[in-house]
Amino acid sequence: MQELLQTAVDNEVVPFAIAARITPDGIVEEGASGGAAMDSIFRIASMTKAITSVAVMQLVEQGKLALDEPAETHAERLRGKQVVAGFDADGTPRLRDPASQPTIRQLLTHTAGFAYVIWNADLLRVAKHMGMDMSRDVGADILDLPLMSDPGTRWEYGISTDVLGVVVESVSGQSLADYFDEHILLPLGMTDTHFNVPENKQQRVLPAFSRGPEGLIQTMQGIAPTTFFSGGGGLASTPNDYARFLQALLRGGERDGQRILDSATVELMARNHTDALPINPMITASPRFSEDCDFFPGQPKHWGLGFLVNARDIPGRRSADSLAWAGVHNTHYWIDRQSGFAGLLMTQLLPFCDPAFLNLYEEVERAFYSGK
């Protein structure tokens, strides 16, 4: 593994990388290259979504949320959401009322009708019309974007988990940062996972890079403070910390005697909650941030409550019904409960789904399974 990652750095596939194989007992294999370490701090972006989804399911367990209730019951900012039905000649979006209101389950499965500007050119047009500069962090204003389809009619990756973060705050009466700390992060020993990285830890934050015509270019140093706790992508974390989270899910919701979910809830999250809706390829509208992305093209996939799930074994790789997702800076994980381990591969590189990185991802995954 160490040789594999070092070769990737030498060939400028990645600026640095961490890989780890995690069993219910802990990390059993790891590799690091390019100066990264298991306690380095990464922008994990959409790997935040799994943690937000766990928070939602904790509230479902407590009877404070119901999967099929309208989310607007708990989030006033959702009320009156409309669907984009097209554009007038001058570019003004035409809006209509949705056929139904998004539910908690639909938000968890990305079938609520929301999208991301990175993968939806029409939504990017809408955002520009609304005066949003999507080249920078627009914070909580992202929640004002309209729906792009009627809830329940299609799968489309989008801001649904940011909306769920607002729901968690409303129901719990805590900020998302405080809720995560009390109910998930500190119980699991994830002491290096933050929305706002403390000053005394900033030296462990890795720089971010982009791949351009001339190779890898550093684009970010450090992480700026924020007042918007994005449930869809706001956290920074370390491989060590995130491995603890994956370990807890592998163990049915518990680690070191600290239970964050009932085992039956973890089972529920792993089921198919999108039925026959196709998991569409994510076609980029922002090539700087993402290539076109389709994990395991041609293979049947569905979405659980917070995770992509492959419906069949991937030969030489993960088993059927493995849970997975990733962050835009190419931090990726999967949880193979059938084989009994989870995998983690992390760097800090745009664009998402960079082909050279995905080749490395496959090599790392195959290496872990060849040695299991």
Describe the SSE topology.
Layout: H1 2-10, E1 17-23, E2 26-33, E3 42-43, H2 48-61, E4 83-87, E5 93-96, H3 104-109, H4 121-129, H5 160-172, H6 176-185, E6 208-212, E7 215-220, E8 236-237, H7 239-250, E9 254-255, E10 258-259, H8 263-269, E11 301-303, E12 308-310, E13 323-327, E14 331-336, E15 341-346, E16 349-350, H9 355-370
**Average pLDDT number:** 96
Strand content: 15-25%
Side by side, the strands of the main sheet go: 2-1-15-14-13-12-11
The total of helices stands at 9
CATH topology: Beta-lactamase
Q: What is the general shape?
A: globular
Q: What is the oligomeric state here? A: single chain
Q: Please compute the radius of gyration using only Cα atoms.
A: 20 Å
Number of spatially distinct domains: 1
What is the structural class? alpha+beta
Please count the beta strands (DSSP E, at least 2 residues each).
16
According to CATH, the homologous superfamily is: DD-peptidase/beta-lactamase superfamily
Task: Provide the descriptors you would attach to this structure in a database record.
372 residues; alpha+beta; Beta-lactamase; three-stranded mixed β-sheet
Summarize the structure.
The protein has 372 residues and is of the alpha+beta class. The chain has nine helices and 16 strands.
Characterization of this structure:
- The chain has 372 residues and is an alpha+beta fold.
- Helix content is 26%, strand content 18%.
- It has nine helices and 16 strands.
- The protein has helices at 2-10, 48-61, 104-109, 121-129, 160-172, 176-185, 239-250, 263-269, 355-370, and strands spanning 17-23, 26-33, 42-43, 83-87, 93-96, 208-212, 215-220, 236-237, 254-255, 258-259, 301-303, 308-310, 323-327, 331-336, 341-346, 349-350.
- The chain has a seven-stranded antiparallel β-sheet with strand order 2-1-15-14-13-12-11, with helices on both faces. A three-stranded mixed β-sheet has the order 7-6-16, with no helix packed on it. Strands 3-8 form a two-stranded antiparallel ribbon.
- β11 and β12 (308-310) form a beta hairpin.
- α2 (48-61) crosses α5 (160-172) and α2 crosses α6.
- The longest helix is centred in the C-terminal third of the chain and has 16 residues, at 355-370.
- The protein is globular, with a radius of gyration of 20 Å.
